[in-house]
Amino acid sequence: MTDGAGAPPARRAYLDHASTSPLRPVAGAALLAALDPVTGLVGDPGRMHADGMAARVAVESARDEVAALFGARNREVVFTSGATEAIASAAFGAAARVPGGGHQVVTAVEHSAVRRAAERSGEVTVVPVDGAGRVDADAVLAAVRPDTALVHVQWGNHEVGTVQPVATVVAGCRDRGVLVHVDAAQAAGRVPIGFRDLGADVLSVSAHKLGGPAGVGALLVRRGVRLDPLLVGGDQERARRAGLENVAGVVAFGAACAELATGGRLAAEAADQRRLADRVIAGVAGLGGLTLYGPPPAGSPGSPSSPGSSGGGGPTGDGRLPHIVCLGVAGIEPQAVLLGLDRAGVSAHSGSACSSEALEPSPVLAAMGVDAHHSLRVSLGWSSTDADVDHLLAALPRVLAELRALGTRA
Q1: CATH numbers and ranges of domains, the chain
Q2: Which amino acids are annotated catalytic?
Q3: pLDDT tens, position by position, for the chain (410 residues)?
Q4: Are residues 217 and 80 in contact, defined by beta-carbon separation less than 8 angstroms?
Q5: How far apart are the first and last CA of the chain?
Q6: Whole-model pTM?
């Protein structure tokens, strides 16, 4: 294809991996092989004929691959249509264990899928966060009541990348005998996750955030935890999620997880994404009207890994996920910035991933006490390169200058 001048189209820089990541080649190959009408997986995994048994073997092999990446047992992995369904299954299943639905605790920066599932399940207590988007573990545990059915805490924030004290919250909930759900959709594929070692009761992940296909995810359910299924009507997934399994999607999800779990791939990708994110942060530092939201970079005053700082970055280095940079953009509407970047060949995002259609202010940024109306989120992934960052750093100053000039003339 060419543009109107007959030249090939300019290379685009895809920097919206926190919304969805391109399909990894290994996952794409697995998906196509499973969908082949002649040699693929055509059977129902619940049937005893050869085609059904082949599908069953493929699903269970993928379950092993997902379990291995996330440090879980095979039987603890329940395949779903994605993280949203997994979250709803956790919220509704926990509520069903308590007469009247009980009470749930959420942090103020949880994804809308968590907030809304909790609100539909019963009474909710929202725990505030600080200016970096970090919740205090003691405040979360103080919100637990005798009728609390479930505590939700995200591993890392989807908008500013802040990593939460999940291990402390999980340990406190276990001491109090209350179930805890960890939303790890953004952290999966970026930081090491050990479900068994963490001790959480349920943990939700999505395939498409880490380079698997859309339409498949998983809820990890700790051995011994019993939750009523959200979807009923069949005995699939050991009677924990009714409906014919998305066999091809599950197989591709497993392939993506297997690649990440092999040869230090996860650590290498995370390190590269952090390096690229640091390049973005350094590259925009001289531009006026931009503010970095979330924890400060490693080594800067107040960062979890800086000298004299309390807390600890652990495998995340500076208390933030490696792939997300969120910037406040003073005085310019985010839609104009995104459209300008898009015309320049850069795909980025602003605000909460589930409110862009309504152009609503970001509830995450509002909870942090910063400007919830004017933000730019840049997010890296497995396919991101230095050329992508170069493209952004060349385009962003030009777009901002043009928009500010228009505002001055107006």
Answers
A1: 13-20+264-409 (3.90.1150.10), 25-260 (3.40.640.10)
A2: 354
A3: 344 444 444 679 999 999 999 999 999 999 999 999 999 999 999 999 999 999 999 999 999 999 999 999 999 999 999 999 999 999 999 999 999 899 999 999 999 999 999 999 989 999 999 999 999 999 999 999 999 999 999 999 999 999 999 999 999 999 999 999 999 999 999 999 999 999 999 999 999 999 999 999 999 999 999 999 999 999 999 999 999 999 999 999 999 999 999 999 999 999 999 999 999 999 999 999 999 999 987 766 555 443 232 333 333 456 999 999 999 999 999 999 999 999 999 999 997 444 455 567 899 999 999 999 999 999 999 999 999 999 999 999 999 999 999 875 54
A4: yes
A5: 38
A6: 0.92
Give the C-alpha separation, 342 to 395, whole Å.
Answer: 10
- Phi/psi at 169 (nearest 5 deg)? -65, -45
Residues 1 and 11: their CA atoms lie apart, in Å, by: 12
Strand 375-379 to 324-329 pairing = antiparallel
Q: Fill in the amino acid letter for 6.
A: G
What amino acid occupies position 326?
C
